[in-house]
């Protein structure tokens, strides 16, 4: 019997369209300044660099926020000129953090964020339906952390990362005129650490590292649906069409260097450089319990080449204090795609992307309100994936809106 080929991208988010499945939406204030990291005004610095907690002016700081993210991908077959668009619902990433100084030199904190996740939805009958029809991802990062301030200008911080996620994925199995749904939860562990420097009252320097996290799906459920009941025994399945599977998705390490310089008491400029180690994502293996989805040597194992490569992001942002209560912010950044045109995949469409950002912040004594937005300009790609037999041109658009709240009582 011929084997069913299953191309997989388990747990891959699609919100950012740039650096793989990394979603740069972990702080509203940060997004307004191109998502730069060397800002230690409140607990929003915790996700970016735990060492920054030591330089927060308030002993207690609490922040929370969320985003609305709208995006669309268009694929055109250049031979037939047929064009297909996604119909994605709006993504809603959120974050929250709290920091506290029990003693002068020691800070502790906790960060909650959703750095990976969204939904991509292609038409059921489009030409890439065997790769993906609909993919929904949810992910959550929980990070307890601690920071120690050695002196007035240097602090070191570290965090533990516990990650949980889920995926629900539909695709066609045209060999038998059927459909496959993959549903699973996954978890993983990692860590982060960083140094935060303030060698001069005008200059902040943030150097941070976030480790890889291997998201392991151990008890996934694969549900096959076919028009004829006679097909299920051929796959070693009963009439329910259900099978189990396991998989591991490597979320990669991230290196960040950030600078913020106060040009005047009212005007500051920030810059970041991010390096993402995507080259460890060379392939994805899906191990089924029964279904013959692979080759004759490993009939229940499906291996999908990914061939990602390391990528970089360059960020530049600024803030100006119009008054002690009102702040204006602007930014721009360039985010590289971690794979070439020859490895383009519609499950996680990724583009070299320019993004412009902006926002306004308001301080009302102990409370702060921040509003931000971003407009992404992904660069069109000529798709030439021979492994999947997938050719054409892909384009995308995306924009983000965010609202953040902060509370710094003492």
UniProtKB/TrEMBL annotation:
Keywords: Cell outer membrane, Membrane, Signal, Transmembrane, Transmembrane beta strand. This is Outer membrane protein transport protein. GO terms for cellular component: cell outer membrane. It is found in: Cell outer membrane. GO terms for molecular function: long-chain fatty acid transporting porin activity. It comes from Chryseobacterium endophyticum. The keyword Cytoplasm does not apply. SUPFAM superfamilies: Porins.
């Amino acid at each position: 019997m011929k084997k069913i080929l299953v191309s997989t991208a388990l747990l891959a988010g699609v919100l950012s369209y740039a650096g793989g499945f990394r979603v740069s939406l972990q702080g509203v204030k940060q997004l307004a300044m191109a998502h730069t990291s060397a800002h230690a005004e409140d607990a929003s610095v915790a996700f970016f660099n735990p060492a920054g907690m030591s330089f927060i002016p308030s002993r207690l700081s609490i922040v929370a926020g969320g985003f609305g993210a709208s995006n669309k991908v268009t694929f055109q077959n250049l031979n037939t000129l047929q064009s297909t668009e996604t119909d994605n619902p709006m993504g809603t990433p959120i974050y929250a953090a709290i920091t506290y100084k029990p003693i002068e030199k020691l800070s502790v904190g906790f960060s909650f964020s959703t750095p990976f996740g969204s939904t991509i939805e292609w038409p059921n009958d489009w030409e890439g339906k065997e790769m993906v029809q609909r993919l929904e991802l949810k992910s959550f990062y929980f990070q307890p952390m601690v920071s120690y301030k050695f002196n007035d200008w240097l602090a070191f911080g570290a965090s533990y990362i516990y990650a949980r996620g889920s995926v629900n994925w539909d695709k066609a199995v045209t060999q038998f005129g059927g459909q496959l749904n993959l549903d699973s939860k996954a978890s993983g562990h990692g860590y982060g650490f960083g140094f935060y420097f303030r060698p001069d009252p005008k200059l902040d320097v943030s150097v941070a590292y976030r480790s890889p996290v291997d998201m392991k799906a151990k008890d996934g459920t694969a549900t096959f649906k076919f028009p004829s009941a006679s097909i299920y025994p051929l796959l070693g399945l009963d009439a329910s069409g259900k099978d189990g599977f396991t998989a591991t998705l490597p979320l990669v390490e991230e290196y960040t260097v950030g600078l913020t310089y106060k040009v005047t008491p009212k005007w500051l400029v920030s810059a970041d450089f991010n390096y993402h180690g995507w080259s460890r994502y060379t392939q994805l293996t899906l191990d089924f319990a029964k279904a013959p989805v692979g080759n004759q040597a490993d009939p229940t194992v499906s291996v999908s080449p990914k061939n990602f490569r390391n990528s970089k992001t360059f960020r530049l942002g600024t803030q100006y204090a119009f008054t002690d209560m009102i702040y204006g912010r602007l930014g721009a950044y360039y985010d590289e795609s971690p794979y070439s045109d020859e490895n383009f995949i519609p499950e996680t469409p990724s583009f070299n992307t320019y993004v412009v950002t902006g926002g306004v912040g308001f301080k009302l004594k102990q409370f702060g309100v921040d509003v931000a937005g971003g407009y992404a300009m992904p660069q069109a790609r000529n798709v030439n994936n021979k492994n999947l037999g997938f050719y054409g041109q892909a384009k995308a658009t995306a924009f983000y809106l965010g609202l953040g709240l902060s509370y710094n009582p003492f």
